[in-house]
C-alpha cells in the first residue's frame, strides 16, 4: 500500500473552508431539491392547469427532471472533479444550480419550468460526489462516520429552511415565484468557492504521481470497477426511489386534503419529514460504523417499508399523529443518506472516486425517474388518489432488503490510502 497526501499538506483554515463550503453547498442543494415538492402544484395551477390528475402528472415530470438532471450532472461534474480538481467542480456545481434556479423566476409555462429544473439539477448532481470526495480526502484524521453524517444531514437542513419559510409565507398559485429568487442566493457561495476553496492534497499528489494521463468518464463502467459501480447504483437507487417515488408524495397529498388546498399543512409535512431526515442522515454514518454497513442498510430498509406502509394504508393527512409518522419515515428513509457518503467512497480509488461515487449515487436517479413516471401514470389511473399510489410505491424498500447482501465489506477501507496495483 502507498500512502497519499496527508492533511498536513493543507492548513487548518483551508480544511475548515472545505468543510463549511461542502456543508453549505449540499445544504443549499437541499433547498433547491425542496422547491418542487412545495411549489410544483401551485406553479402548474397558476399556469392554467386545474385537473388534479394532470397536475399530479406534471409533478411527476418535475421530479423526473430533477432525477435525470442530477444523474447527468453526477456523471459530468464527477468526471470534471477527477480530471480537473474537486474545488473547481464544486464551484461550477454551485453556480449551475443557483443561477438556473434564479432564472426559473421568469418561466411562463409548465414546460419551461421542466427544462430549467433539469438544467439546474445537473449542479445538484455534481455537488454531492465532489463535496464528499473533497471532505473525506482533506479530513483524514476525523471520524468518517461523523463527517458522512454531517454532509448527509445538510441537505435536510436545506429542506427545513425552505419549509419553515413557506410555513410563515404559504406558497400559493399567486405568489410561488419568490421561492426561485431565494434559490438563487447560493451564487454568493459559488463566488466564495471560486476564490477561496483549496484543492484536495490527495488529488494533487495522485495527479503528480500519475502524470497527465487523461481519465475517461466511462472508466468506472469498465473492469475492475464495473461490478462495484453497478452495485453502487442499485444501493443508491433504493432510498432515492423510496424518497422521491413514494415518501415525497406525502407533501402534495397533505396539500390537498378533502379536495381543498392546505398550503400550511403541506409545509408542516415537508418540515417534519425533513426534520426526521436531518436526524437520520446525521446518525447514518455512525450507525453503519457501529453495527456494520450491511446490517444497517437492511434494518433501515425494513423500518422504512413498515413505516411508509402504515402511513399510506392506515392514515391520511387529517389523522392524529400523521405528522409524527411523517417525521418517522423522514428519519428511517434518510438514514441511507448518512450511510451512502460513508460507503460509496470506500468502493473506489482516488483517481475514480468522484466519478464512481457520483455515478453510483446519481445514476440511481435514472432508475428512480422511471419509477416516478410510473407513479405519475398511477396518479392518472387512480384519479389523483395519493394514498393508493403510495400503497404500491412503498414496496420499493423490499429491493433494499435483498440487494445489500451482494455488497462487499468495506469497513476496513482507508480513504487516505490507495492500492499500488
Low-confidence stretches: 1-8, 416-421
Q: What's the pLDDT, averaged over the residues?
A: 85
Q: Helices and strands, in N-to-C order?
A: EHHHHHHHHHHEEHHHHHHHHE
Q: Strand pairing plus helix content: what structural class?
A: mainly alpha
Tell me the name of the CATH homologous superfamily.
MFS general substrate transporter like domains
Task: Give the biggest beta sheet.
Answer: 2 strands, antiparallel
Distance N terminus to C terminus?
9 Å
Would you write up a description of this structure?
The chain has 421 residues and is mainly alpha-helical. It has one domain: MFS general substrate transporter like domains (Growth Hormone, Chain: A, Up-down Bundle). Helix content is 72%, strand content 2%. It has a two-stranded antiparallel ribbon with strand order 1-4. The chain has a two-stranded antiparallel sheet with strand order 2-3. Strand 2 and strand 3 form a beta hairpin. The chain starts with a strand and ends with a strand. The N terminus and C terminus are likely disordered.
Comma- or semicolon-separated keywords:
mainly alpha, two-stranded antiparallel sheet, disordered C terminus, Growth Hormone, Chain: A, 421 residues
Structure, briefly:
Helix content is 72%, strand content 2%. The chain is an all-alpha fold. Strands 1-4 form a two-stranded antiparallel sheet. The chain has a two-stranded antiparallel ribbon with strand order 2-3.
